[in-house]
Amino acid sequence: DEFIGDAIFVIFGAPVLRENDAKRAVACAVEMQLAMEEVNRRCRERGYPEVQQGIGINSGQIVVGNIGSKKRMKYGVVGRNVNLTSRIESYTVGGQIFISENTLDECGRHLLRIDDEMEVMPKGVKKPITIYEVGGIRGEFDLFLPEKVEMDLPELPRPFPVLFTILEGKHAGNEARSGTVVRMLDTAAEISADVTPDKLTNLKISVSDMEGNEITTDLYAKVIGAVSGHPGTFKVQFTSIPLEVDGFLKTVAAQERTP
């Protein structure tokens, strides 16, 4: 339908309604994620940074058509289900596909590979909803992402301190909390702190080097979950890495790999 900033808004079922719209939407999402390998190969060839995408899918009734006035009119959609789709996408990190319970019912659970499910409380809803992480779709489409493998992150020989602000959830506020990055690999890390934020919470992180010099205050991450058997330690996925801290993180990771 349109581009919204760095997002693509896609409609299935309008202007032509089909019985398998939800299935086609999920299959399209899986194909898009599979295509990212080739996209990033081309990025590397040209010296561009690699990119990732998260996808949210919802099914439901909407108002669709030419919306506006005689001076300005466009084909578009409005409604609470449009807003909910955006909220669902906001819980993703790169490489993930999250769908609503409505979409799950429309597709049929037996056709989907569900890798995870979680209860969330998006803005604008009165009670929690369940969202599902999709890893593939069976049947006529037969498309699957690689199976998820839980990896143990390597321990850092020199853990480094961070300050993080919790942007939503029961611990949300402007208070900067202290933590230490103890394990890290690529864009995943484990942080030890005196509070464990809720799963899928967004964090804003300040990073300093080993001498205490501030590198950035604008590193963003999403909480993936608590680390089993290690109270006060949680895993995050970095979602936005400024250039000024990218080199530092790569240097720290390289030191870990040096024998």
What does this structure look like?
This protein folds into 2 domains: 2-144, Alpha-Beta Plaits, CATH 3.30.70; 155-257, predicted glycosyltransferase like domains (Thrombin, subunit H, Beta Barrel). 22% of the residues lie in helices and 39% in strands. The chain is built from 4 helices and 15 strands. It has helices at residues 21-45, 80-90, 101-107, 243-257; strands at 2-4, 7-9, 55-57, 63-68, 73-78, 97-100, 112-120, 129-137, 143-144, 155-166, 177-185, 188-193, 202-208, 214-226, 233-240.
Assigned CATH architecture of the largest domain: 2-Layer Sandwich
Structural class: alpha+beta
The end-to-end span amounts to 52 Å
Please outline the major beta sheet.
6 strands, antiparallel, barrel
Helix content: 10-25%
CATH topology of the largest domain: Alpha-Beta Plaits
Strand content: 35-45%
Radius of gyration (CA) equals 20 Å
Shape: globular
Uncertain regions: pLDDT < 50 for 5+ in a row?
none
For CATH, the homologous superfamily of the largest domain is named as: Nucleotide cyclase, GGDEF domain
